[in-house]
Give the backbone structure.
Amino acid sequence: MPKEAKQAPSVQPAPSAPLLLHIFHSFGAGGSQTRLVRLIDHFGARFRHAVVALDNNYSSLSRVTARSQVTPFPVAPVHGTLAKWRRYSEVLGRLRPHRLVTHNWGTMDWGIANMSAGMRHVHIEDGFGPDEVVRQKRRRVATRNMVLRRSAIVVPSMTLVTIAERIWKLPRKRIHYVPNGVDCARFAPSGGERKSNAAFVIGTVAALRPEKRIDRLIGAFAAARFEMPSRLVIVGDGPERKKLESLAGELGLGARVMFVGQQLDTAPFYKTFDVFALSSDTEQMPYTIIEAMASGCSIAATDVGDIRKMVSAGNMEFVVPKAENDMANALGKLASDSALRHSLGLANRGKACLEYDESLMFDAFGELFGVENPAGVA
């Protein structure tokens, strides 16, 4: 019996719920992983899910409530590009999933393999790594154009809609704009958390990777002028943590910067932030911005992806260029005006619940994953 079947017998074809095969570079912490966790729990017994993590990191599976509906599905590494495509095509032919669902460029080899396997394919593109912040790589553009022309392409931002249509030259009918969504009730502030703060609290939630530019946020925090005691709370972990802790020490910030590590439940943290800050070089429609909005936070963020369009109209002036001094000025102005922060928080929460409640996302993915073939899915 093939190795994959021994490791994941529950994903073998059965006449019960249709199987969705999800391919990730990693199933660790991240926005796309958060979205799938919410989709699995929402759909429950309607689908079975198998998850391939190419780096064998399946830590986000621990957050799934409907565990009986999902299983990790490790696929042994294969040397050689052609051998890899043949192997993936064999796996697809044996499992025959109801949908192959690939996530971002790092899983494109599965899309290539599917060109011979012929499974219905949904490709979700959430954004780009540091190597494509400024310009799309020609080889990747050409590959996406070739591989995804008969697939459903799902993107969470209008910026990505434009890229898929104008740069990748994909048919508009294949491109589905599906904004990320959150459980607004779960993130609702109770009203007392921020009032109990002994200091002005700026917070961020992020994987501590280079493109998140937490160094920019720490520098801005050090440079900003605050009229009251202030703290910066950093929720998340990653390869940059030691470097960032050293930077905070070098800037003399000491206990004013708190690294609280990775947290399974981030909702309680948002509710204590007076301002949520995002300092990334690259984003499209970050979950953390929506979660902060739903939590009633005012927001200071770099002007990347769709963030300016996401926040309330009044908050747009605090979506700033990717420069430390601009972030510092935004933080200082928000710190000096509690009434402004409160009004922006109310407006942000109202917009999040109206436009980014997860029920809208569930409906859209229900059609894309559904038993009946929706328009635009090959």
Summary: The chain has two domains: 3-181+358-369, 194-355. The first strand starts at residue 19 and ends at 24.
